[in-house]
Amino acid sequence: MGFFNESGVNRTCDATLSSFVQNLTSSYTDQRNEASMVAISALMFILAAVFFNLNLFSRLSDVSAILNPSMRLFLSTSLSLFLPVMSYLFSEAKNEGRASYGGDCRTSSGDSSAGLTLRARTILMWMLLVELLRKQADAVLVTGGGKQGYSGTIERASRIAWLGLLVFYNVDGAGRKAVYGIIWVLAATKLVQKVAISEIAKRSSAYGKNPRLLSHYMAQIQEEGHSDSGVIGSELLKTCKYAVMGEDKLEKKDDPRSRRYRLQLKEFTTVVTVGKIWMLEERGRLLDADSKRLCLSFALYKLLRRRFEDLPITDAETRDCRRLMFKGLCSETDTEGGQDPREATAVALFQVVDQELHFLSEYYHSFIPVVLASSFFFVANYILFPVTVWFFCVMTIVLCSNGDVVYAIFSLKTDNSAISVGLMKLMGCLLKEITKPPVLFTLVNLSVTILLLLTVLYEQLWELLIFILSKWLMVSLLSDYAAKPRLRDSAIFTGVIRSIMWLHGRMSHSNLCFKQFDALGLCWLSFLPLHNKAVPKEVKKSIMEYLLKHVDDPHGGPLSNGLSALAKHQLYQSQLSWACESESIAEVILTWHIGTSLLEMECQQLAGKKAKKKGTNLGSNGNGKVATTLSKYCAYLVAFHPELLPDEDEETERVYKAMKKELKVMGASEGMYKAIKRDLMDALRCGCYYLSPARTWYSKEISKLLLNTAGDLPGHLSKGDSHMTVVQKGAVLGKILIKIAKEGSQEDELPVWNLLADVWTELMVYVVPSSGELHVKAHKEALAMGGEFLTVLWALATHTGIARPAMAASLVEDADELQGISRHPACV
């Protein structure tokens, strides 16, 4: 400790501060522990930086109550080891302090002291602050239909109890114990708050028990029937009785005939329905189109939750919802600035379903209690609860000083030198001697503590901001506005809604996106991130129009894997139908993906300058964009999410691995290897797999090899050509598509892209419907990972009852012959 001499720190720091700094660094003068101290300080600095980044930089672009699942897994794993390791280090630091006193735990003044060193107190402070931040790794509610286990709560209560023991048994000094005790009280009350919120939500008919209640509600609504079959658009939406809020307030009466309870719908005024929200526009312009659709999304979220919690959705409900979505929402006319009405309608449709899944994802995975958002919960959780917490903090200060309030206040300053001296002045004294290792360690640890403190404070402010700006609170306020006429006349209440709407309008909102994967480039730098692309409006429009045609045609056949789309292009049907005849959906997807990718590569040179000027290479009306983006997304599903597709996972993986192996063999030629090695540094400097020049070059070379391979294969295939691999079939298909494109190269719009857009749209819709429990579970897990575009389509198909044949037609016919009956293909 001799490095704090008169020529050093004492020139700028008085004697009291110099003595404190000496005590501050005394724990770090033992060279035997230098390695462990450096490691622990470095790891704590990384952990503090992670928490700070999660609470600041990762949230500036989007307000969300959901933490990235990968980061949540990292935090859960790290924090599960944090308390045992830090408890051991605390014990070691405590023993070092006792050893430094020679076994005497009394200060020079004769007072009893536990003799905790600064290092021990710092470790204890880190343990308390990290416990306050731990909730980011825990969801507020737990999945499973409201059946929540208590193991996590017991584990966290054990941690809190252990930390309380460490604080009140080891920390000496009334003021110091009060500071540590206050932080412990904050952690303990946060646990009580989380348990209370979870238990209230689990037992509430508005939250945990809502799916079963809503099933009764929907059954009774369907019993009443509808007499407005000719109404469409906004008028149909105004008649919708889907519950937004308030159904939990309906009185229940037992029905002796069915042994079930019935809701007293005579009290229907308590229920805020979609129709009531839509009719508010007649009473004023407070609600815009986005706000009304938000309430519709919330009502649909409640209906879809039943599917995740093993409750059935009846055929009558799906017919009613299909009419509401396609005859109501899709028939509204609300366009601005010359926008294509069909594109605007498609954007609105997908916005509703995407917001619905956002509600669903936050319900199961939010670490902030936005699910309970309401004006009442705001007062209880963000006003009354903090007041209660402050009362317990004051009581802690008083109890730590044995009831002497004056001494308690005085000791807060005298027993905590960092408070009495001032952190900035202390940091200045430490910076003067930063070249000395003990001072450097102390400065790093002090910085970690300050960073954790700032993160805790920022997190509390950010949680309040997320709550205020959450869609849950907006739906709650709009429901109150619709249910209580007196609030519509309140300037304060309407002003609050307008203010939140104004803030929502100026926030950045995440777009509906999907990943893009090119199989022709999968062998080159495939470990780099996949390209995430916003779903084009043309894709939304194409899918919506296909669904509208499918549900409007009473004589239309079931969904097909592209054959129906080819039937509309009879000129090319005979040449291409073989590509859809496989019973493996993964094989059909990869065959068409390879063919589409080959055409996309060829079209860059097909029409030369004319194509570049007019954009005919990818279709001037967006058909090329529809085909190429859906092609790459479906290939991504085969490669990374086979569990979301209709085929068995093992079958999909087998087909994909076989294709990947064959492409790798083709890409392993000596000439390609030398060129790839030459372009390696360019690709790495680019940093993105889908923007690298090497990847583009590689894909082009693979395309050439595939087309050369196709030249040696038959120009027309049939279902019997099962000996050919997926890659070979894709190469033949690509050759045929390129031939068709060259035949129409004189036209402004290549007809081949129109054909491919129809095929890929139909193929995309074909893979969507699924009712098996494994598929439902897969979509639920996909929500935890951020969601997939396929899950959005699946939610829409679930609501509207869109289905596909359960088995191949031949198998159905064989089963019918065995049973001696004639039946319609079953649907899944």
Automatic annotation (TrEMBL):
- Protein source organism: Hordeum vulgare subsp. vulgare (Domesticated barley)
Which PANTHER family does the UniProt record give? OS01G0798800 PROTEIN-RELATED
Show the InterPro entries listed in the entry.
DUF4220 (IPR025315), DUF594 (IPR007658)
Asked if the keyword Heme belongs to this entry, the reply reads no
**What protein am I looking at?**
Predicted protein
Kindly indicate whether the keyword Metal-binding belongs to this entry. no
Q: Which residues cross the membrane?
A: 37-58, 70-90, 363-383, 389-410, 439-458, 464-483
* UniProt KW keywords: Membrane, Transmembrane, Transmembrane helix
Q: Where is the DUF4220 domain?
A: 160-509
